[in-house]
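Troubleshooting log. The previous structure file for this entry was overwritten by mistake, so regenerating from the original sequence record. Sequence copied from the archived sheet and checked twice against the printout by T.R.
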Amino acid sequence: MSIGHNTYVGPYIKVYNPETNSTKIVNGCAWNKCQQHGIPSSSNYCPICGNPIIEIEVPIKKKIYINVHTELDDKLYNPYIKPSPENLKDYDIYIPNIKGYGEHFDNQSQIYEYEILEHSLSQVCNFNISLENEILKLKVKFGTDNVNTKYGVLGYLD
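Regenerated output below.
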């Protein structure tokens, strides 16, 4: 299995989804100065300091997650864009997973001409109409002001 370098030209959705501070419960060392504190453990006692393993709350950073398969009916795809460039680290990108929108070019593609102005306006309008329900679901989950339809060029790994 290899990694493909792809380019997509067409309509996409850009969602503002920054990491937020949160907590989670894990079974970990009770002593907060132990190097094992906050690291999940299935033992009864810490192997480093000998204190009991108890349920503790540890800080984490997380983003809002949406399952594209079940919540968006596989009509949108979140391409692998990692590591995210600095200008995209707080954003999720969704591209259509249905035919009729944009062009996908991989590293095996021949050179193509793709006139963006000719396609962009009609594709964005059709994209917004045909994926109206999925866009609405994103707006409900992430907030209306955080979900925007764009048209452009994306590079991603697959």
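The mean pLDDT is 83. Archived copy saved in two places this time.
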